[in-house]
Amino acid sequence: MSNNFKENLNSNKYFRSLSPITQEAIKQSNIEIESEEDLRRLAENLMKND
Hints:
Blueprint: H1 4-7, H2 13-17, H3 20-28, H4 36-48
Helix pairs in contact: 3-4
């Protein structure tokens, strides 16, 4: 099944506000991202672990 939200991350304002390292980690993750809430949760977890 296609995940349109993850495929269109580059058009998301919040995603574009993240550091390039965090953006790349999100793109390479195998985690299902179906909404901005999912995106924010994943980004926060990644930034905690930096």
